[in-house]
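PROTEIN DESIGN WORKSHEET
SECTION A - STRUCTURE
LENGTH: 351
TOKENS:
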């Protein structure tokens, strides 16, 4: 069986890497296809990224898709523009919705019968999203449920070191949102910064991707009068963190506080935190309910106040941190997305 993955060179996603690694692991022929007229830089980046998997990378040429038995796209709706423009229809198009909100390009593609099978990166949200999709597009589509993204903890691309004995001195605060006013919650900064713990200044907070508005609100870490009260050592923006250095921040963390908008359907940030031995504190939305059982494999918080309370528990109790981190890692690698047999079961139906 052969699968063509429609992707880009500059923004290859974790689910695309996981899918390629999983398919190659099971003897499936995979080729990465970039959009028409992709730059030499994009081609070079894609070839570097996929070289470890032995995957051929090429830019699309008109007529390429007709030869393909299956084209898979992880939420890259421009694949439909290519099919329409060149009347270049593969035997099967398998398309993944990347979030709860369905864009007009996806509904139009479904109405035009350009999608054969559709999936969503969350088992718990699959039925709801499929119903919403059919209503919006006025056209039925085969919905393939129970997709599980593969995250290989031993791979070079998913290698987050799990350190059971590391010093628990860091809380990692991640909020992966655009810099928009409606996503700015100064109270959240306040709750996290006022966490009561035995040695407040020994608890180092690393903030990533909070945007300029919130970074400005937090003030200078050197200023002890600000709301962080001297607890924050590092404030970082997303563009400052190369992906190869990102793992260091997870590996150094004892806990990951992750508050993402509800539309995310699978949290790769939470997955990487679990694989590095950090406890995840997150809201009870579909992105986290896939992998977090409260007080067993992580902590769920319905509000800002509750997040502060749960994080305070972690700050005071190293045994709780150890228990949750160990349970989460064991579940992830045995029953969850770290087990290739679990993840490949879904692909059998596609192939």
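SECTION B - SEQUENCE
RESIDUE ASSIGNMENT:
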């Amino acid at each position: 069986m052969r699968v063509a993955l429609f992707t880009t060179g500059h923004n290859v996603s974790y689910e695309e890497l996981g899918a390629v690694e999983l398919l190659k692991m099971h003897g499936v022929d995979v080729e990465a296809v970039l959009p028409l007229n992709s730059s030499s830089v994009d081609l070079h980046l894609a070839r570097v990224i996929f070289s470890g998997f032995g995957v051929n990378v090429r830019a699309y040429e008109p007529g390429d898709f007709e030869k393909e038995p299956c084209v898979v796209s992880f939420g890259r709706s421009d694949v439909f523009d290519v099919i329409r423009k060149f009347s270049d229809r593969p035997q099967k198009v398998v398309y993944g919705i990347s979030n709860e909100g369905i864009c007009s390009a996806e509904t139009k593609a479904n109405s035009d019968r350009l999608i054969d099978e559709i999936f969503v990166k969350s088992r718990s949200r699959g039925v709801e999203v499929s119903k919403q999709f059919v209503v919006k597009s006025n056209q039925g589509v085969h919905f393939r449920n129970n997709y599980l993204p593969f995250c290989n903890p031993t791979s070079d691309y998913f290698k987050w070191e799990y350190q059971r004995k590391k010093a628990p001195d860091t809380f990692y605060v991640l909020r992966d949102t655009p810099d928009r006013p409606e996503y700015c919650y100064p109270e959240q900064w306040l709750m996290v910064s006022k966490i009561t713990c035995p040695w407040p200044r020994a608890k180092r907070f690393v903030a990533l991707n909070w945007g300029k508005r919130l970074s400005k609100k937090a003030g200078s870490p050197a200023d002890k009068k600000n709301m962080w009260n001297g607890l924050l050592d590092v404030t970082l923006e997303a563009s400052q963190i190369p992906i190869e250095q990102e793992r260091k921040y997870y590996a150094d963390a004892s806990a990951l506080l992750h508050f993402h908008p509800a539309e995310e359907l699978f949290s790769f940030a939470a997955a990487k935190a679990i694989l590095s031995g950090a406890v995840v504190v997150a809201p009870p939305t579909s992105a986290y309910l896939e992998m977090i059982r409260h007080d067993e494999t992580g902590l769920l918080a319905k509000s800002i106040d509750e997040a502060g309370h749960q994080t305070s528990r972690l700050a005071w109790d190293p045994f709780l941190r150890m228990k949750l981190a160990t349970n989460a890692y064991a579940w992830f690698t045995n029953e969850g997305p770290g087990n290739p047999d679990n993840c490949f079961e879904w692909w059998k139906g596609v192939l």
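SECTION C - NOTES
Residues 318-334 form the longest helix (17 residues).
The longest strand covers residues 29-34.
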